[in-house]
Amino acid sequence: MFVLEKIAVVNDKDEIVGYEEKMLVHEKGILHRAFSVVILNSNKEMLLQRRSLVKYHSPGEWTNACCSHQRENESIIEAAKRRIFEELGIEKIELEESFVFQYKCHFSNGLWENEIDHVFIARYEDYIEEFNEEEVEDVKWIELEELKNWIKDRPEDFTYWFKVLMREVEQREITFPR
Q1: Which pLDDT tens digit goes with each residue over 111-150?
Q2: Above 80 in pLDDT, residue 71?
Q3: Separation between Cα atoms, residue 68 and residue 71, nearest integer Å
Q4: Active site residues
Q5: Positive or negative CA dihedral for 13, 18, 24, 53?
Q6: Could you tell me the pTM of the whole model?
Q7: 84-120 b/e with 16+ CB inside 10 Å = b?
Q8: I want to staple 47 with a disulfide (CB 3.0 to 4.6 A). Which of 35, 39, 41, 63 is the partner?
């Protein structure tokens, strides 16, 4: 079910300049604020989600545990925690902002992503047993070296922003919490 939702529109300094309807933002390629949550466990595995086959763009592609947008009257960390619960059913998780990157991508269906993306990292040790099937097709834990090889061998399996995120992790030499 599609819900009208207004998301934070920003300038190139990541300052909120207003709120616009999410689909309009993606149709016009308006710069907006987003977040990506990377979840790791003590086995050096990352939690991936495969996007629902009915998503408005990038359906069926693998990506980080959770990503979305900040709404009016919530902080970006509140937005991230809200979506982790809505998509994966995780109620309590500690998030640490690691870095921010910007990217722009035009999809074959005519929509755009033009985002300043705040990346949060978290530890989580349980399996995801139930998830929101309107948002998520599947989830899996994967060892980081195996993930890097998969991305190299089959980049078309992954969302555009996740590949950018992983390049940023490598370039910045980000070390994940143990």
Answers
A1: 999 999 999 999 999 989 899 999 999 999 999 999 999 9
A2: yes
A3: 10
A4: 67, 115
A5: positive
A6: 0.93
A7: bebbbebeebebeebeebebebeeeeebbbbbbbbbb
A8: 39
CA distances from 56 to 19, 40, 92, 134, 148 (A): 20, 27, 28, 11, 26
CA separation for the pair 26, 58 (Å, rounded):
13
Q: What's the token pair of residue 101?
A: 């990157």
DSSP state letter for 22: H
- With tokens 């985002």, the residue in question is 115
- With H, G, I as helix, E, B as strand and everything else as coil, classify residue 38: strand
Residues 6+ apart with CB under 8 A from 150: 142, 157
Residue position matching structure tokens 């934070």: 8
Q: In 3D, which of 33, 46, 28, 62 has the Cα closest to residue 138?
A: 62
User: Considering the chain, what percentage of its residues have pLDDT values greater than 70?
Assistant: 96
Q: How far is CA 68 from each of CA 74, 111, 125, 154, rounded to the nearest angstrom?
A: 13, 15, 22, 24
Strand partners, 103: 115
Q: Is the pLDDT of residue 178 over 60?
A: no
Any alpha helices (H) in the chain, and if so which ranges?
A: 22-28, 76-88, 144-153, 160-172
CA 22 – CA 9 distance, rounded (Å): 10
